[in-house]
Amino acid sequence: MIADLTGKTALVTGTSSGFGLLICLELARLGYQVAAGMRRPKDSERLLSLAMEAGVKDRIHVMKLDICEPKQVADAALEIEKRWGRLDLLVNNAGEAIGGFVEEVPLEAWRRQMEVNFFGTVSVTQAVLPLMRSTGKGRIIMMSSISGVVGFPGYGPYASSKFAIEGLGECLSLELQPFGIDVVLVEPGAYGTAIWNKGFSDMSGQEGSPYQAMLEDVLHFSKSTAENSGDPAEVAKLVGEIAGMKFPRFRYRLPKGTRLTAAAKLLLPDRIFRRIVLKTLSRKR
User: Fold this and answer.
1) Which of 43, 45, 95, 148 is the most exposed place for a label (fewest CB within 10 A)?
2) Calpha distance 197→282 (Å, rounded)
3) What is the DSSP string of 128-149?
4) Range of the domain at 144
5) Domain total for the chain?
6) Active site residue 158
7) 158: in domain
8) What are residue 142's DSSP bridge partners?
9) pLDDT digits (tens, 9 = 90+) for 78-101
10) What is the CATH number of the domain that holds 109?
């Protein structure tokens, strides 16, 4: 059953491109007033242009929000409270992908990955929860990943951050249930969005790296998967559906291949599953 979303408010982080941009448009189409948080509001041109075409520009409100900047996070929460006095939906979408092999990724890059994908998400959630509790019922949608369920070679920093999001979501869902706030994890596969181009296209091994052959397999696999995984708008549509459900599930996975991969990890012995992953990577070349 889908609820009437007209007059409700949402905050979406990381909205200048990719899933965040599409989610904003979908929620606005459904009737939400959408606070579209982005690090550089000057990058909002495409979002606002598409919103104009869709006839929902008056429901999109761009705000400066770098989730790693505590003052910006606090200011965004205060602006939402002053403008609407309520927050019904938080979509924790902002993030980046850092690829590389565990041995070779600099420690600073590991810290950056966790700072953006995990600590930034915690910061935004903490800032808006008082308003969400005062609103009454609400929903938090955490944009996780299949990489938060299955760790692939070359994805160490990104997967670690998404595994952390999974644990955060599980704890948060129990803590907020008494307040009528649902927490939902969405675990997409590698759709062809900007996060993959930014994070993995420049991935390279060190000179003379023992991982060079596997790196080539990983890059080929990632590119092929992103190109053939479907339309990212499917993810935005799912988020819109979850927003309006009376009783959503805790986890959603898409596309079909993502669900099959997660099921295989659960059902197969670990040694066999790992063997299949490595064979799949080499078979893509």
Assistant:
1) 45
2) 21
3) HHHHHHHH-SEEEEEE--GGGT
4) 9-283
5) 1
6) yes
7) yes
8) 92, 185
9) 999 999 999 999 999 999 999 899
10) 3.40.50.720
